[in-house]
Amino acid sequence: MTSHLLRKPQSQSIGEGITLIQEVLTANSPLEYVGFKLIDLAVGAVYEQTVEQDECCIVALTGKITVSEGEHRFENIGTRESVFEKKPTDSVFVSGGASFTVEAMTPATVALCYSPALEPRPTKLLPASGVGVVHRGKYNNQRMVHDILPDSDPSASSLLVVEVYTEGGNFSSYPPHKHDRDLLPEESLLEETYYHELAPKQGFVFQRVYTDDRSIDETMAVEHRNVVIVPAGYHPVGVPDGYTSYYLNVMAGPKRIWKFYNEPDHEWILNRD
Ligand SMILES: O=C(O)C[C@@H](O)[C@H](O)C(=O)CO
């Protein structure tokens, strides 16, 4: 059966030295608020874009890049050659109407995370040193989170961006939770994309996306550089022994608050000693 929520990587040349690996837009997906692109850049390649109605978080996933927007120039940013160095990286936030360039100073992979610009915000460097590192969970539910653009940081008007590392034999985004109802203070409505990487690369993880009424219920074998789209519902990830999982989450919705709702059947997992 063809999955509507799983996107395999492509390899489309979109300019000199620029390869488009993933492109999830509101125009080619069920999403209304979240967009995601992943590009590989050869040394010296320059990616250019104007964000019209959106805001964008440019994440230097790997390699060194220089990002320019108007009078702003952030040179040689990026901290790692592989996401599995497990250290935070640098990002740049740009708001609606801005034109920016990303130039690769070394071979680089860049994640472009989009959501509607609900209010104007200044262009800003989000340095690795400002990324919060959080360890969550116990037993086989442990993961490490890098908060690149959490809801406590007002730099963006709708965008939320986090990185999550899960070691083999563990689950994350677990026990299952969702955020698909605009029902604050109990729950916020946030769509989401998951960009996955695996170490070693031949690994896979399982991700299930399902709603209470099971109108969405897909369990996917997710491989290196795949994207999983979460328009609604619970979205746990399970990682087989021997492999480390990395994913980059982009979330957005009508309100910039991450308030999730745990599936009641599984909430007991949180309350163990
Ligand atoms: O397992 C975690 O703590 C990470 C998740 O919260 C993940 O960022 C997510 O599910 C966002 O809704």
UniProtKB/TrEMBL annotation:
| UniProt xrefs under InterPro entries | Deoxy-glucuronate_isom_IolB, IolB_Bacilli, KduI/IolB_isomerase, RmlC-like_jellyroll, RmlC_Cupin_sf
- Pathway info: Polyol metabolism; myo-inositol degradation into acetyl-CoA; acetyl-CoA from myo-inositol: step 4/7
Q: Which GO terms describe its molecular function?
A: 5-deoxy-D-glucuronate isomerase activity
Keyword Ribonucleoprotein, does the record have it? no
What EC number(s) does the entry state?
Answer: 5.3.1.30
Q: Does the keyword Nucleotidyltransferase apply?
A: no
On the tree of life, the source organism's domain of life is Bacteria
**What is this enzyme's catalytic activity, as reactions?**
5-deoxy-D-glucuronate = 5-dehydro-2-deoxy-D-gluconate
Any idea which UniProt keywords this protein has?
Answer: Isomerase
What does this chain do?
A: Involved in the isomerization of 5-deoxy-glucuronate (5DG) to 5-dehydro-2-deoxy-D-gluconate (DKG or 2-deoxy-5-keto-D-gluconate).
NCBIfam families given for it?
myo_inos_iolB (TIGR04378)
Q: Specify the protein name.
A: 5-deoxy-glucuronate isomerase
Its gene name is: iolB
